[in-house]
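Quick one:
INPUT:
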């Protein structure tokens, strides 16, 4: 049975096939947060975030499309999170009143 499972994993595992890149998505979310709250730190971390995105492709952890999609998806996730946080805080404020 163990050999069969290893065989199945060997067929299904594609190096660099994680879609989208959560590493790049999280980094982009942090960069958006810094853009709105501390531009000085944003500019300091910008080269490191670009290097992180490029390195995920270089070490073949992701394909380029994975990194690009992770960065693009960070925007709606970030803005939805801010909206949800504000709604939750508003609801909690009303519940305490």
């Amino acid at each position: 049975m163990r050999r069969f499972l290893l065989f199945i994993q060997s067929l299904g595992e594609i190096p660099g096939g994680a879609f989208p890149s959560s590493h790049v998505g999280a980094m982009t979310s942090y960069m958006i947060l810094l853009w709105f709250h501390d531009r000085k730190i944003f500019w300091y971390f910008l080269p490191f975030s670009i290097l992180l995105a490029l390195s995920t492709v270089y070490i073949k952890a992701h394909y380029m499309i994975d990194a690009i999609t992770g960065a693009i998806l960070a925007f709606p996730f970030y803005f939805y999170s801010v909206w949800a946080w504000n709604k939750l805080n508003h609801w909690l404020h009303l519940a305490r009143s």
